[in-house]
Design a protein that fits this description.
- With 312 residues, this protein is mainly alpha-helical.
- The protein has one domain.
- The protein has helices spanning 2-9, 17-48, 52-60, 67-77, 86-95, 100-112, 115-125, 127-150, 159-163, 177-212, 217-223, 228-236, 243-255, 260-272, 275-281, 287-311.
- Helix 6 packs antiparallel against helix 8.
- The chain is globular and about 65 Å long.
Amino acid sequence: MINWILITLLRLTPETPAFNAAYFFAEDTVKILILLLIITHAMGLLRCYLPIARLRNFLTSRKFYGADYFLATLFGTITPFCSCSSIPLFIGFLEAGIPLGITLAFLITSPLINEVAIALFIGIFGWKVTLIYLASGIMIGMIGGFVLGKMKLEKYIEPYVLQESVKSESGNDKKSFQENLKKASKMAFRIFRKIWKYIIIGVGIGAIVHGYVPNGFFEQHLSNNTFAVPVAVILAIPMYANASSVIPILQSLVEKGIPLGTALAFMMGVVGLSFPEAVMLKKVMKPKLLVLFFGIVGLGMIAIGYGLNAIL
């Protein structure tokens, strides 16, 4: 179908840069948008049955000996990162008496892993790379949260945080499955409407890279560079974007020769560390905690990049 449209209707010549770019764009756009709708519906429904208040109570009423960090990062994977959700959740966790390290584990993981990124990774890279991506994000969240927690940095939280009254989300136990499904669907389409344009832009940029950048260009300039991973993370900080617009570009970069570890470190830097995020978190954290937070998370991304490059 795509070949027919490109060759018959658009009269593009096969195996040319224009044809390759257009084919990449058409195939990935359709595939990613369909996967996005499916997974955002599934994750929205899951959130209806996993209310925040219950999770807070679950974490504060038991001793997990390390599993509490894992559960915090797991919850971060199903919570979209934005100023209207992550900061209230972060404050709510602190109010509930959850230790700072555990709340930071959630805060680290939330931007790195979400249903949108999972949908894109599955559609573009397949299950193997998706699982590596999930494990890497969870590992950074758990280790980063643990290290920051052991540093006893509670005094560097802005005083108003612990005094702020945050309304907990109520459970949905009394609602029928149909009502929860309707709510999840509204949530999914709200997310879809916000990011579909970014997906098209991201896939479009990826298509241009795929079709027009010469083979070996990126491999020549980055793959053999010892400092490629930290440089990729540092360069990613000012390049704020969401996963939907970055991951398609990474597909093209990987195809052009950039090692997966370097590409993944770059993507994590873009979605997990940024100037807008720093401005937002400055409302909650004092400068020292903010610098330590960014530094430790950045080091985790660099370590993941080097580790994946070594084993893949």
